[in-house]
Design a protein that fits this description.
Number of helices: 10
Strand content: 5-15%
Order of helices and strands: EEEEHEHHHHHHHHH
Radius of gyration: 20 Å
Number of strands: 5
Distance between the termini: 37 Å
Largest sheet: 5 strands, mixed
Structural class: alpha+beta
Helix content: 40-55%
Shape: globular
């Protein structure tokens, strides 16, 4: 069983400004916490809407978008983890009860914001698949991301049937990177994610960030254009202190000490 020793800071809410809320009982639906000690640089986002199984409602999405906007400006954050505060649930997908009360215009605006959110967190399209069982198209990017992950034929099968997948099935299809057996505490997936975050944490922050840009942008274009994007990202990495530190550490046979500059 995986055990991780770290210092924890308190959860803190990041409330969305200027929006009415049905809110989670006892506080914000989205909270953040920066880890300390050896895990400094890892920040966790806690999704805490137990009344709706973390469904993507107006307040939930507004608070999550605001928290991401604030964290994007925080250069101390190297790895971001999404964590559920609702036992046995990560995110139930769209809040269809709330959606039912919206006008057509309000639905259009909300789905546009939701699509932007999914792009921000590079979410798997599987989150929106269950909508097809309730007469809806997965409009937050599911029809575009899923074919790119699984191919057109299998994406159509899953979207047309609205089939729900277990973690093991999602792993077998390649929709998720890891599937782990549950532990006694019920947080095996979180512990696996934390372990992965700890692998990323000591890497050069600028190289990781530029690698993400090259992959994400390159997947949107043809291979030749993708190579050009990679070249531009690589060029930005060449003059960094971290690149020189990595080369020096390799030569001196010691662990590198990256500073993100």
């Amino acid at each position: 069983m995986l055990r991780v020793l770290c210092l924890l800071r308190p959860w803190r809410p990041l409330r969305a400004r200027g929006c009415a809320s049905d809110g989670a009982v006892g506080g914000s639906e989205i909270q953040v916490r920066a880890l300390a000690g050896p895990d400094q640089g890892i920040t966790e986002i806690l999704m805490n809407r137990p009344s709706a199984r973390n469904a993507l409602g107006n307040v939930f999405v507004s608070e999550l978008l605001e928290s991401l906007a604030q964290l994007r400006e925080d250069w101390q954050v190297r790895v971001l983890l999404f964590r559920s505060g609702v036992k046995g649930v990560f995110c139930a997908g769209a809040d269809l009860k709330e959606r039912e009360q919206m006008s057509e215009a309000e639905v259009g605006v909300f789905v546009q914001r939701l699509r932007g959110l999914m792009n921000d967190i590079a979410s798997s399209a599987i989150m929106g698949l269950i909508e097809t069982t309730r007469g809806l198209l997965p409009g937050a990017g599911g029809t575009q991301r899923l074919p790119r992950c699984l191919g057109v034929a299998l994406a159509k099968e899953l979207i047309f049937t609205g089939r729900r997948l277990s973690g093991t099935e999602a792993h077998a299809l390649g929709l998720v990177n890891h599937a782990v057996a549950q532990n006694e505490e019920g947080d095996a997936a979180y512990q696996r994610a934390r372990a992965l975050a700890q692998e990323i944490l000591p890497q050069a922050p600028i190289a990781v960030r530029l690698g993400k840009v090259a992959i994400d942008r390159g997947m949107e274009v043809d291979i030749a254009s993708g190579m050009a994007i990679e070249g531009m990202c690589y060029a930005q990495n060449i003059p960094t202190r971290d690149r020189l530190e990595g080369m020096a550490a390799f030569r001196e046979k010691r662990p590198p000490k990256f500073v993100g500059k």
